[in-house]
Automatic annotation (TrEMBL):
The chain crosses the membrane at residues 6-32, 283-305, 311-330, 339-363. Residues 45-210 form the Glycosyltransferase 2-like domain. InterPro entries: Glyco_trans_2-like, Nucleotide-diphossugar_trans. Belongs to the glycosyltransferase 2 family. WaaE/KdtX subfamily. It comes from the Bacteria. GO terms for molecular function: transferase activity. This is Glycosyl transferase family 2. Keywords: Membrane, Transferase, Transmembrane, Transmembrane helix.
Amino acid sequence: MSVLQVLFYFFIVITIIQYIYYICFLNFFSLLKSTKEQQKNIPISVIICSKNEAENLKQNLPKIINQNYDNFEIVLINDNSWDNTLDVIEEFAAKYQNITVVDVKPIEQFWGNKKYALTLGIKASKYEFLLFTDADCAPASDQWLKEMSSHFSNEKSIILGYGAYTKIKHSLLNALIRFETLMTAMQYFSYAKMGIPYMGVGRNLAYRKELFFNNSGFMKHMEVKSGDDDLFVNAIANNHNTAICISEESFTISEPKKTFKDWVIQKRRHISTAKHYKPLHKFLLGLYFFSQFTFWILVTILLLFLYQWKIVLVLLGLRILIQFLSIGLAAKKLKSSDLIIFIPFLEVFLIVFQLAIFSANLISKPKHWK
């Protein structure tokens, strides 16, 4: 058996794996209809951890304060900022009675650790239901609190939301950031609907305070600089206690990084948490990335040597068709339809980028959250 023949058979196996992934994404998320839950108007605490976010708070906090919701508080955490974040927070607190201020002082054991600051904020919150976002995020509508809180029930204690990024025209970096965000969301929403939730994003995530303390909060991963969102969800989420919220009114919107350097630093920190996921999650996510990477390598080799090129092209075309349906419908659902036409290019670029990030993280550890 020749080398090319072995590669061809391996290509068929890898292609089938890719088909399975994209069909699962299509079935469990892309074709999923957003359900309208009954509004509950439960008391809820919005928790925002800020480090040097004075300008973002000035811009975004009014959109949270003006939510169309009757009973909520906002817990604003100043995590040892060296700008005037604390001044801005205290100015808002003086105007609005439902704002609680938590000023975190540095201590050697937890220096630069966002999880420590968040824990203090959670302890200071008044209500059982907690909704988390970041200072550089703004709700997409004044219905954000209603939409996210409506998915809580006696059974559902964790609500996974979507954190989008602002679109910037004619920007390759912006397209890549939004595509990576879209692909990540498609995966964590799909896995959650399949009954194996593995992560959420701190830009838009809700859970019960009781669940936090009953599971010892962030203590299992306190030494990990990031992962206050995905590692916590990975540890405690299951088929019974997790719901997703994908209505457009429930989105949050953030300003994306403006340079590749800043984005690389951010993604190095995010990707570094994946090694702490549960074994099944690491296997599924790793197999997906491996099959993506290997698929394009094998396609290139087989077509260069014109080995079984007709079959290769048919399998390639079918894979692209399924992928366009899966990602395209997900993009439409998550208001990123402008990315659809660029899917193959963005996918290949993202694969190379992620491979570079994995390699960089093997050489050196990423820095703390800010």
